[in-house]
Amino acid sequence: MFRVPSLLPTMAPQLRTVRRFKRDPVATQEALLRSLLQRAATTEWGHRYGFTDLLHQPRLAEAYRARVPIHPYDAFAADVSRLREGAADVTWPGSFRHFAVSSGTASAGKIIPVSEEMLHLNQRFSVGTGLQYLAQSGNGRFLLGKHLSLPGRIEEDPAYPGTWIGEVSGLVAEQAPAFFKHLHQALPNEVLFRPNWEAKLRAIVEQTHDMDIRLLVMAPTWALVLLRQLLAYHRERTGVRVDTVSEIWPNLQVFISGGVALSSYRELLDALIGQPTLDFVETYGASEGFFSFQDDLADPSMLLHLDNGVYFEFVRQEDLGRDAPPRVGIGEVEVGPRYAPILTTCSGLWAYPVGDVVRFTQTFPHKILVAGRTSEMLDAYGEAVFGEEARAALEVACAETGARVAEYHIAPRPAEGEAVPTHQWIVEFEAAPPPSDAFAMAIDRHLQAVNRHYQIRREAQAFGVPEVTPVPPGTFYRWLQSRGKKISGQTKIPRMSTERTIATGVVALLGNNA
Fold first, then answer.
1. How many CB atoms sit inside 10 A of residue 418's CB?
2. Which helix (H) or strand (E) holds 154?
3. Average pLDDT per block of 10 residues along the chain, 514 residues long
4. Distances in whole angstroms, Cα of residue 264 to Cα of each of 132, 331, 388
């Protein structure tokens, strides 16, 4: 019989690490910054910014901010090219063999070097998330079955033999411990790394249909696609219709989520999986590092991991447009404001903006919610609607009308004839609202209640009530396919855009003019 105490020797180091940074987050982060500067002092960037001298400054964090400016990707790209060619001691000691292709909604294929140490820390984070869940729940039955993940593909870079390139989830999967691959991993990497996305999903559902799957690790968006295909395959194979995944995988216990905000998809996943005792654990990471995890099943906010190779600084979102926006450390952040994280890492990123926006729900210990991307804002009419507000408005509208939303995209709709301009909300409903204006009105009321700029512009009739354009199930997936670009586990639907390129492309699939 499975016994939780038998895992205590494995869990102890992970739990001690978490206790340490929760107890003294400021000291933990400063010690990490000092270590990063010491180790990179003799690199090109170390000489450029005088890391050795910085280490002698009495107020290290302040001295670091004053001397090392924020480096967006463009300031880093030329050195990334050199690192891919094998250059050593440029941004970090030694050379790099692993590179992650960032596929975020605001990304244009940025290539992020990943050190061996960061790979190890990412793997430790992944294992630690499962152990933290075990410590919370005391339910170790998920360790008695198989675990299914949906990592992106990696491959040896044909242009730079001896180096590996792909999505960070694939790099971590390749580095998974041998015991995990042998005991828990549902499918070999040869299947998980297949280049054709549709063929990979088909192979996964065929090969896992009869397995005892107990844990899922994947983005909620792709989980919906995969699990629907699983239900369809079951009908195809057996001739029997089932409505929930739990009828195929009755022991499914936990869903570890990442990539996009879970809140928009949890109700859909609950209904699709149909397992009343299913637990959800949300994580937050990127190509640059793994940042936070949900340490309390009853609290949707995530504990910021402050000892995982990433030194954090933060810039208030309203300051992002300034030439040298003020940065604060972990000891100076406040609950409420939106911040853009600025990262310094053991992969040689120095004051690098990750492109996300977070909001602290508490400090000491520090917990966050991801509020969206720095690019996720609509301000065509002075309304300054952020991604987090739009997501919350959809959730309110769903609660009021009984609707369920699978995917969406929002873009300004210019004035046409005598009609005032507005926001067009293109929505793929899992369950459509009643045929009325109630859904749009609920969105409008919520945004006016939480966003003063939106309220003022609406009262001035600068723009009208949101225009909700429903699209059939699968429309956004067809739009992704229509672009002619490779689809992967990190591919995301951009939620908001000030341009109408995406809106036009999606609506064109309906045979209408955008």
1. 5
2. strand 154-156
3. 44 67 92 98 98 96 97 95 97 97 60 96 91 92 95 90 92 85 91 90 96 95 93 96 97 93 87 95 94 94 96 94 92 95 98 94 95 82 88 94 94 83 94 92 95 88 92 92 79 87 92 54
4. 24, 31, 10
